[in-house]
# Entry
Amino acid sequence: MTQLSEYDATAAASGAAATKRFQDKGGAASTSTERVDMLATEVVEAVHDVIRRHKVTYEEYDALKAWLIQVGADGEWPLFLDVWIEHVVEEVANENREGSKGSIEGPYYVPGAPELPADATLPMRDDEQGTPLLFQGQVTDVSGAELPGATIEIWHADDHGFYSQYAPGLPEWNLRGAVTADEHGRFRITTIQPAPYEIPKDGACGKLISAAGWHAWRPAHLHVKVSAPGHQLITAQLYFRGGDYVDNDIAQAVKPELILDPVASADGGGNVATHDFVLDPS
Ligand code: MBD
Ligand code: FE
# Structure
């Protein structure tokens, strides 16, 4: 068999990997009977309401049934939920934070990335393509006090929009790392700028997008989870000002506070983006 490359990525393979990752995480919290009753009843009633208001036909009902079955067959429930639903869950979960804004985690986080020092280069291929990026900043608490030894977990797509462990042919931890900030809470992470991410066209989510006449894109982004002892972990994404789809993210996960302003580095060899994180007490 010839070696597969990231261009051979399929919706079903990345869906299966994302589904397995989610199931391995375990810990789906037990939800009380009262909450399940209330939430399930209201979701079902909301669907009934749409059917009545729009006079949904049996053909449309069967198309929905076929599509829902296909979402499961393709393993695309994590992708579907994280693209179309998670942003509101995140909004509600973090509405009382004083510190940095969060954003959705998405389906492609993997715990246990290589641990790296405060001044670090993410694991990447010798010939990794893309504009070099120095991503630097400082982690503080809400009073401005430095948080020495904070952890910045970072993961992002490559210059073609693919994530390691969710597309074939990529080194396991490519463009993923867990950086420990220095004694002032500072970090300097060398990587490359990711490309925008396109929802796979060959799966159920892609089918919905084309059937609805939507576009399939998320703007280029860096994912982070920033944490420090005694403080709440924040999950966020950072975007690049002026980039494609920053104003038009299919996952609706962009916030103005999360847009980086990269500047050309002094040596002309890439960009530098500076961004600080403020963690709420736990
Ligand atoms: C992504 O890269 C992502 O971050 C989200 C939220 C959904 C799909 C792909
Ligand atoms: Fe992503």
User: Anything to note?
Assistant: The chain has a mean pLDDT of 96. Residues 106, 108, 197, 221, 223 surround fe (iii) ion (ligand 2) (CB under 6 Å). Helices lie at 11-25, 33-54, 58-73, 77-84, 86-93, 204-212.
